[in-house]
Amino acid sequence: TTKYCYAFDEGDGKNKALLGGKGANLCEMTQLGLNVPPGFVITTECCRHYLEQDALPEGLMDEVRAYIQRIEQQTGKQFGGLTDPLLVSVRSGSAISMPGMMDSVLNLGLNDETVAQLLKNTDSKRFILDCYRRLIQMYGEVVLGLDELIFEDLIEDFRIQQGVKKDVGLSERGWSQIIEQMKAEILEETGQPYPQDIFKQLYDTVGAVFRSWYSPRAISFRAISGMDEAGGGTAVTIQQMVYGNRSEQSASGVAFTRDPSTGTPGLFGEYLPNVQGEDIVDGFHSPHALSEQARLTRGDKVGALETRMPEPYEELVSFGKKLERRFRDMQEIEFTIEEGKLWLLQTRAAKRTIEVAVRVALDLFDEGLITRLDVIDHVPLDGFNKLIQAVLVDEANTDILTTGLPASPGAACGQICFSCKTAVERANAGEAVVLVRDETNPQDIAGMHAAKAILTRRGGMTSHAADIARAIGRPCIVNARFIELDQQRGTLKVGRQTLNEGDWITIDGSSGHVLVGKVALKIPELDEYGQRFKALLEE
User: Distance (Å, rounded) from C-alpha 480 to C-alpha 457?
Assistant: First the structure.
């Protein structure tokens, strides 16, 4: 009988082809003794069966139920229980990292009955309602295929009615009304009510995550990245939920073991208090620095994690060092802090530009973590020519329109373009464009690839735009919050200055400056790391 499920404490962390990168790394982290919520992996082999047969393999769900029972035994919680129930996340994870390209559903296991009982027995009513609405929203979008704007517009309308700017300001009654309206939207759009059977929620979600392997954005990403479709598919990780949105002593964040924009050693990243993980990368929020030094550099007025929650911060620093030693590479770590306790949800090799890849590889070599031959393996040789990226000839005499966070280095000029579709069309016609958005999302991958550079009004250094820009080598600035976009009129405004779609701007992803017009660029000399790497290749 084919085995389709592996618990984190039994899976082979080296077998990414079977367990996916996320699942394999979770097995490694668990077996290293780090704080990882318990869970299990459904294999890529199962995904390929589903995609070929349009059905889950016979016996899979009996196996899934047995592994759910294992988590129940480990946590003391019951899936579908009426007091402190076990909720799980269902996440994708292919053998090669595809950040944000496939689907996930969180908080799975709630229904009307469990929520009603929980509301009777807790003072954290807003927390319960927030978890339930997130589940309904993600289930509607991922499993049922509803337009995400249906739910976002609904929430925005309630924010306006209640006079609040952020979700955390909505009242308990507001969230209750939102939940009922979301369920009504699902019934109206699909003709079927939101399912109350928690195992149906689970089965349907597993199938939906498998199907997301062939989502348009995932296909585009693989084509752009040169990934082979043969023998692919995604694994699915099912894991106990931990809650970054439980209180002000809870948080979610993303940490890098080195600065992904420069390669400088030391913990780097961002967090948000009292939110769940998807909020940190969705571009709708502006996260805060992990370290006090980074907070001062950015001019962030909100306290760093280092000062607000010093014990979880120090533990995160320690875990980061252990993971870098284990994987012998710079890591990107997703984490949650629940009521002061740190949990690690994922680690993977961090996306980086060629310039940063060279520095990190040489630093790891100097630290004794990798060999000379490993240095070459850490740097894609076909991209080494990208190491010499354009920079401004004379920034002192340029007209700075505004400034944001320097998310991906290098400089590029292009004509303002607000639409991904238009960006692709104009790039195919030989024009240089800069993609300008409120924020980007996984559906924007084709437009991002077509653009010379990317500028977003929202988001942080770990947002989708920042992560993908570094992966594809595009200069990028995020959180340029002083710009106002009017896509209907085709205008970009900063104060009294107005630019139109088609006007030229220059993006300096190293300084965070947005410059008016087509600014002269130059190719710099190789820095010390580039020269060392070149010499190493010639040995």
Answer: 5
- Among 521, 399, 384, 403, smallest CA distance to 452 is for 521
Sheet with 104-108: list strands edge to edge: 5-7, 39-42, 234-240, 88-94, 104-108
Q: 249 in helix, strand or coil?
A: coil
Q: Taking the chain, what is the end-to-end CA distance rounded to the nearest angstrom? A: 52
Q: Where are the alpha helices (DSSP H) in 380-438?
A: 420-428
- Please state at what angle helix 172-190 crosses helix 148-162, rounded to 10 degrees: 150
Measured CA to CA, the distance from residue 125 to residue 118 in angstroms comes to 8
Q: What percent of the chain has pLDDT over 70?
A: 95
Tell me: the pLDDT tens digits for 236-274? 999 999 988 888 899 999 999 999 989 999 999 999 998
pLDDT at 287: 86
Question: Shortest CA distance to 286 belongs to which of 473, 298, 91, 244?
Answer: 298
From residue 487, give the alpha-carbon distance in Å to each of 458, 484, 499, 501. Answer: 15, 10, 12, 9
Query: Quick one: tokens of 237?
Result: 């990780």
CA 450 – CA 424 distance, rounded (Å): 5
**396, two tokens:** 């002192």
Ordered DSSP codes for 163-222: T-SSGGGS-HHHHHHHHHHHHHHHHHHHSSPPP--HHHHHHHHHHHHHHGGGSHHHHHHH
Report the alpha-carbon distance of residue 184 to residue 110 in Å, rounded: 17
- Alpha-carbon torsion angle 537, 364, 96, 470, nearest 10: -80
Strand pairing partners for 96?
none
pTM of the model: 0.75
Distances (CA, A) of 211 to 26, 148, 204, 230, 255: 22, 18, 11, 16, 29
Q: Which backbone phi and psi does 480 adopt, to 5 degrees?
A: -85, 75
SS3 label, residue 436 = strand
Which two structure tokens, joined as six digits, stand for 52?
């070929």
CB atoms within 10 A of CB 405: 22
Q: Token pair of 67, please?
A: 């592994």
Q: Show the DSSP H helices in 32-171 as ranges.
A: 44-53, 60-75, 112-120, 125-138, 148-162
Q: Which pLDDT band holds residue 317 (cuts at 50, 70, 90)?
A: very high
Whole-number Å distance between alpha carbons of 412 and 129: 45
User: What are the backbone dihedrals phi and psi of residue 434, each rounded to the nearest 5 degrees, phi first?
Assistant: -115, 120
Contact 434/455 with Cβ under 8 angstroms?
A: yes
Please name the residue that has the structure tokens 């600014």: 519
Hey, what are 22's tokens? 């996320």
What pLDDT score does 279 carry? 66
Please state, in angstroms and rounded to a whole number, the distance separating the CA atoms of residues 330 and 255.
11
